[in-house]
Each structure stands twice: as C-alpha cells, then as structure tokens.
DNA sequence: TCATTTAATGTACACGCGTACATTATGGCA
DNA sequence: TGCCATAATGTACGCGTGTACATTAAATGA
C-alpha cells in the first residue's frame, strides 16, 4: 500500500522504540514540523500560539507517547517539585500513634497533589544529625513539613538554619513561641481544659494528669489546659497528681502501680492522659489491679485514635483534626495566598473537640 | 594586613553569597586551582588522583560549603534516585491497619536510605487512573513498590504495563500467581492454618471464618489455610460459616448480628478473622449482644496490630513481619545481588507466627 | 500600499553535572 | 638520557528542558 519511505521508518521507530529510547521534545518537534521551543510553549501553555499549531503539536506528542522528563524539567526550572516530610526516626514512630502520622500524611498528600508537588519522605536520623537545610541546598526539596519536632538543641539549630537560609518550612503540632516559625497546631490548651472541665463536672475533684515529655509544646499546652480547668473550678493544683510519661502505651502502663495506690487511697478519682496510648496503657495496668475505668475512676485520653474506640469501656478522648492539619500545613507552603485568607492571621490553631465515651 | 586583592573579594563572596547564590562545581574548581572535571572525580571518587589534589579539592569544597545539586546529578545520571511507594487511595487506608503501612514503610525506608535512595510517596488515584508506568517514563522514580494492590482489571493492566516497559517494581502482600511479578509476601496459608489448628486443638469444631475481599490474594491464602486445617482435622467445610467482610472494623461489627445467632444456636463455637480490625469489630458487636470472646466463643485475628493488644480480652492473632517485608521488597529492587542470596529463590514467603492471647 | 504594531515561531543558550577522550606529568627501565 | 606505560588532569560535550532574544508572519491603521 505505502512505499517504504522515511515515513514508514518513522512509524516503525515510534511503535518499537518509544519504550526503549526515551523520546524527547526533539522527536515531537520533528513530527509536528515545528521547533522545539514551540513544542515547549504548547505543552506549558505559555505565550500566544496558533490553535492549528497547538493541535499539531499535541497530536504529535500523543502519537509518540511523549512524556516530558521530570528530571530535565526540574533541572531547567531549578525546582524539584518535592515537598519533604520529615518523620521521627523509625523507633520513635511507635511513641506516637501511627494513626496520627497517616492522617497528617494523607492531608499533606491531598494538598501537595493538588498543587503539583510530590511527597519525599525523610526519616529523621536517630543520631542527632538533622541537617534539614542540606536537603534544600541539594535541591532535593522545595519546601518541607516537619512532624514530630521536639524542642531540643539540635532541632532548634536545624530549624534556625532553615529559617536563616530562607527555606520554606512548616511545623505541625509543635510550636516555638519565641521563634515565629510557620506552624500549624491544634488548640490543645482548650482541648485539655475541656476534658478536665468534663471530669470536674462529674464531681471529680482529684484529677490526675499523665503528661508527655516537655520537649513537646503539646505537653505544655495540655498542662496549661489542665491547670486552667482546675483553677476555674477552684481546685488546688497538686503536683503529686501530675505524672510524666512519654506518649507510649508502655509508659502509661508503668504508671499504673503508683496510680492504683492513689486511687485506692482516695487521692485520685480521675485521670486525664495527654494521649490515648498512655491512657490505654494505664487503663490496662489498672485493670490488672482490679481498678476499672468509668467505674472506680474516670479516664480521658487525647487524639481520638482508632485505639480509643476499641477498648472496653470505650475511651473518652479529644478529637484532633490531623488530616486538616496536614492539609493546612501543605497549603501554607504551597499556596500561601489562599492559606492566609483561610485562617485568621496568626491563627494557626485548629479547634479540637471533646468526645465523651464510656470511661468518664 | 592583607591588601585588598581579588583574593579578598573571593572570600567576601564566600562568606556572604554562599547561601544566596548556590555555588557550583565551578567555584570549587577555581578555589582549588583545578578543573571542574577533577572536582567531579574527587567528589565521586572515580579514577586515579593525587592525594594532594584530593585534599585541596575537599578543602575548597568544605570552605565554600559546596553541596552538589541533586537536580543536576539526577539529570546527568538520568536517574532520579527515588523509589516510588504506591499507597492505597486515602479513604482506603482506613480499611487496612495504618500500623501495617507504617511498618512496611519504615522497612522500605531503612533499606532505601542505605542504598542511597529516597522515598517518593504516591497515593493511588481513587478513580481507576493508575498509570504507574508514567512515573517511570517521566523519570520521577527508578523503581517502585506497590502496596495494597488488588486483583482488579485496572491494576493488572497497570502492572502489566510496568512489566512490559521493563520497569523494576515489587509487590508487597499481594501475589499474581499467573504473572511472575517480583513479590514479597508472608505465608498466610500457613498462618491461617496454624490459627485454625489452634482453635481445633481447643476442641472447637464449628469454626467460622470472616474473610476479606477476594481481590486480595491474602484472602484466598487465608481461606486455603482455614480449609486445610479443617481438612486435617476431618472437619467438614460448611459454607454457612464463611463470611465476607472488607477488612474494616465496621465490616466485622456488622457481622455480629448473624454470628451471634449462630453462636447462640450452637452453630459456631469459634471465629477466625482474616485481620485484627474485623476481629475487633466482631468482638465489640458480639459483646454488645452479651457474647464474650474467650468465654462464649474463641476468636483469633490476624496481623498482631497494636489494636490486638488493647482489647480486653487481648486478641489472639498471627504476627506478620511487616517491617521485614518492607526491607526485603526494597532490597529486591535496590540490591538484587544480595536479595537473591538472602532468600531461597522464588521463596518470597516470609514466615508468620501465631500468637495466643486471651480470646482463644 | 506601506509603516507599525502585535502574534507566532525559530534560534541559541544556560542550567550543573558526569564522563569520553585528549593531553600532560610522572616514574621505571634500558 | 630517552622511551614508554601509566597516572593525573584538562577539554569538550551531552543530558532535555525553559526561555530571552531574534526573526518572521499577520493584523492594524493611515
């Protein structure tokens, strides 16, 4: 039918080699009979162009199955198109709810995708070597979101370096009030106050508090909320009722011995734990000692994690909009114009809500 | 002391602009008094070089705070250095244990970091548009690991295209036995058989099975293991004892009505659920009907998730080495020479182990 | 019709690195 | 000393885009 001309050679090339030799702008340009620049302009929709040309180029691109090389684009644009997400070192993940991270990560992913960014996962080095700024200098990422940040010297140094370098980043669930970093947090003070108010409203007067490590601003917020609620109700602060865990279930479990005695002795009639995991550990530890949540004492956790729904009795807790927080953190970095309008400025605080279940 | 020469201008440049204008190989070369190629060779440790030169270059690089541009490197090497990790669409995540993903992800991350790769997170599109191969054609990733794969036509097509394109990928926890894809799975047949054997050994003879959707090879494996154990014990298969859930807690919960009746009627004396979430949902649903696990019936879950430890009674289950599976999947792709030696060839199956707790 | 603006396209180069190849230093050996 | 093999380094270019600038085509106005 057709003579074996150059055209046929071309189509042979297309059908056979398109998967072998990556075809580039050049081939598309040749097929469409235009210059490479025109191809580029059509695909990026920049500058004026004749509709006819546009169609020819798009057709040629489709025919060749052309896909621009992200590598070359990134290089030419000097942007990686990646948002780095910094996660706690592997073993630390288990201190937090994994639920916590998957929710936040999903939220970040949603916004990032919408803005044309990809997510680069970065596990924090266990041994203090946290050179976040290097990731920017290497141009691996254009922005980054820091999860599980703790107020320790190495972390402060790393963040200060980011700031000094002018690198866009956003903290989630951790504030450095003296630093004015971009931050998305939830109103843990209000959440804790609410939780403790609830306990007080039940007539409890000896409310213990199991907090997490003080390197997390979350912990300070919760303490503040706890104290505020007590003060409101005219209940005196009692330091013996304040305990320190590390947000792991185990740490809650291990406090059960001490707390059991106090409950038996009438020194404690309710417990507010700074997260569900510790609350659950405590619940289990106390149960082993014959002390039942919701019966011998009231218990409230924090996070509304999956776990809070599967204990029995079900755990009262405070719901935190992790997914929203992730979305917002990403939006702050990737679409700052929208971000500002969406929040009352400086209002990085998302609302939380107390959820009463069976342990209180 | 020093005259204001070009040298001083240079050091001014270093101290002030090193963070503003990204310095490149060129500046290092000039400062070290060598060619750019030599800088490159020193930094990549390629070819012979004089120790003296090496030191000069490294010193210059350090002095300038030089960091190679990952973008340019990737472009020149035509490798992104990224491993794509494909995750279920956001809403789906909740069907799986988030524990499951964070474990596997950590395992992948460990190996990837060791091999000098980064992790690019990719959420599967909800609407069937899963063009995995495009990620390779765009050169966004050099390899990919597919999590939560389901045997549906779109998925098969996407995987077939990957294979046809010669793109390295590895499935985790899902097999396509007719396709010979690179896969890392655990021995769910053995795990399920073990779990059911245990129930039978307790004298149970009417063991129900709550399975997940059949698009997951995991589900088929578990069914097979369940049936194998029954057959061994000479217990006849009874289709009315086989139920279909979707791996969510809710789906287990919703089966409670039917199963409660059967337990009361003596038609069921034990339940093996294909994952912990369904087991927990069922446990809760039955409890609401006054039927207690470990008491009125025996219950075994699957996954050894966090949740299995916090129910009461604690859930008997089957532990799966998710972290190891992640490590191995990554190793398969990134260090195939080691991977092959580590496993008996074709032996993609990792062992699982039954864990007896209080519900059985 | 021609001059002048504006639309549409082409030409040329930078981006920062890796690396093939050319070139120059070095050392061994006769 | 001269020759050769090899070590060490330099030169030059490609990788596939984006885009500034130059050029040409079309449109507008007198």
Automatic annotation (TrEMBL), chains A, B:
One Gene Ontology molecular-function label: DNA-binding transcription factor activity
Swiss-Prot/TrEMBL keywords: DNA-binding, Transcription, Transcription regulation
UniProt-listed CDD domains: HTH_LacI (cd01392), PBP1_LacI_sugar_binding-like (cd06267)
Record keyword Transcription present: yes
PROSITE patterns the UniProt entry points to: HTH_LACI_2 (PS50932)
Record bears the keyword Transcription regulation: yes
SMART domains in alphabetical order: HTH_LACI (SM00354)
Residue intervals of the HTH lacI-type domain: 23-77
Superkingdom classification of source: Bacteria
Transmembrane segments: none
Gene3D superfamilies (alphabetical): 3.40.50.2300, lambda repressor-like DNA-binding domains
Protein name (record): LacI family DNA-binding transcriptional regulator
Native organism: Paenibacillus arenilitoris
Record lineage: Bacteria, Bacillati, Bacillota, Bacilli, Bacillales
